[in-house]
Every structure is written in structure tokens, then in C-alpha cells.
Amino acid sequence: MVVGLDLLTGEPDEMAALQRVIEGAPTYARRITGYPPGPADAQSLMTGCPPGVGYSDKFVWGVTLDDDMIGCADVIRGWPSRETAHIGLLLLSESHHGRGLGQSAYQAVEAETHRWPGIRTLRLAVVATNAEVLPFWRRMGFAETGEVRPYRYDKLTSESIILAKRLPGPESGYAGRVAAARIARCSSR
Ligand SMILES: CC(C)(COP(=O)(O)OP(=O)(O)OC[C@H]1O[C@@H](n2cnc3c(N)ncnc32)[C@H](O)[C@@H]1OP(=O)(O)O)[C@@H](O)C(=O)NCCC(=O)NCCS
To answer: What is the 3-state secondary structure (H, E, C) of 44-68?
Structure first.
């Protein structure tokens, strides 16, 4: 079983698969909107962007298990600050929950964002009505920042709890220590 990411470009077959994935997670939709998934949710996910962000910094991936799309991830690069990537959504269809696949999907997303030059922090918002997922994010290394924002969708009023995770810098880890040792050797010649 191989979990992967497939960057979506909006092709009709991809959009149909994305819509199926979202419809496979009705509990999430009810928690954050008060309604079951809607027929235009895949389209909204593909097109939704924070103000001032261009599509070149928006990435929607299908999460694949072998060759089937079982989930999706939406990430904005360089928002709300240049060194931050914001995870708008990580979602798996409910039939795939609780088997370690969310963790694998998250790790793949983190690896992608870590390659982006200048990105040092991952950030996301958990709506308080969906607080059941907080332990998942803590397990992935995120912590509450203390920032809480008002959240509203139609009749549902709640709060967005902001979490963040600092990514290891290029100077940390084994490769970084080896590089630093090389630089030290060069400069002492
Ligand atoms: C959040 C989500 C992606 C997690 O995926 P998952 O495949 O169920 O999670 P995993 O099985 O990979 O769990 C990884 C770890 O997190 C823990 N975890 C996951 N969900 C948890 C929960 N609700 N409560 C407590 N721990 C949880 C697991 O126990 C596991 O820990 P372990 O490694 O110590 O055993 C999935 O539940 C989902 O798609 N939810 C709907 C969409 C959603 O709410 N997304 C988040 C929006 S902010």
C-alpha cells in the first residue's frame, strides 16, 4: 500500500474523483458547515484562495492509495507570511480513517512543502466544532499558537483554532551538521 500525492489541475476526471472523496467525508462537512457535502464542494476547494493569493501559490493534491484517490490536501504557499505554508484542508474519505493513512498523507504534504524555498512554518486552522481532530495534529507535531479567530458558516458560529509547526531548517539534522562541518573545515584552512 503506497500513499502518494497527485497535484490536481482541474481535469474533469480529477474533479469527479475529488468530489467523491469529499462526499465520502460527510461528518467533516456537517461539523464545519452544519450541512452534508454539497455538489460544488470540489469546485470550491479548487478555486478558493485567500485574498491577494494567486493560483501559482495554491496547491490541491489528491491523496492516493496505490492508484485510487482516497483523500485530498489543499495548501497555500507563502501565506499569511512569506515563510509560512497554510494547510487549508487534509481530508480522507471516512472509510479510510484510523489506519495510519492520514499520517502518511500528512508526511507527504510536509515533505512537499519543505522543498519550497523559504518556507519554515506550516500552519492550519481547526474549527472548534471539529476539535476531535486536534489530537491528530498534535501527533503530527503541531501546537496551538494561542490565536483563535471567529468562524461563521451560515447559521453555524464557532471559532478557528490556529496551530503551527516549525519545519526543521536547512542547518538542522544530520545533513545540515555534515554541511556545517564542511564549511567549518573550509574556513579554517
Ligand atoms: C484528520 C484525518 C486526516 C486523520 O486521518 P486518519 O487516517 O484517521 O489518522 P491516522 O490513522 O493516520 O492517525 C495518526 C495518529 O493520529 C491519531 N489520531 C487520528 N485521529 C485522531 C482522533 N480523532 N483522536 C485522537 N487521535 C487521533 C491516531 O491515533 C494516530 O496516532 P498513533 O500514531 O499514536 O496511533 C482524518 O480523520 C480526516 O480526514 N478527517 C476529516 C477531515 C478533517 O477533519 N481534516 C482536518 C481539518 S483541520
So the answer is: HHHHCCCCCCCHHHEEEEEEEECCE
Q: What is the mean pLDDT of each run of 10 residues along the chain (189 residues)?
A: 96 98 98 98 97 96 96 98 98 98 98 97 98 98 98 98 92 46 36
Cis status, amide bond into 80, omega within 30 of 0: yes
Report pTM: 0.91
187 CA distance to ligand 1 middle (Å): 47
Q: CB-based burial of residue 126 (10 Å sphere; 0-12 exposed, 13-18 middle, 19+ buried)?
A: buried
**All domains of the chain, ordered by start, with CATH?**
3-187 (3.40.630.30)
Name which residue sits closest to atom 35 of ligand 1, judged by CA: 100
Ligand 1 pocket list (CB less than 6 A)? 25, 28, 89-92, 97-103, 124, 126, 130, 132-133, 135-136, 139
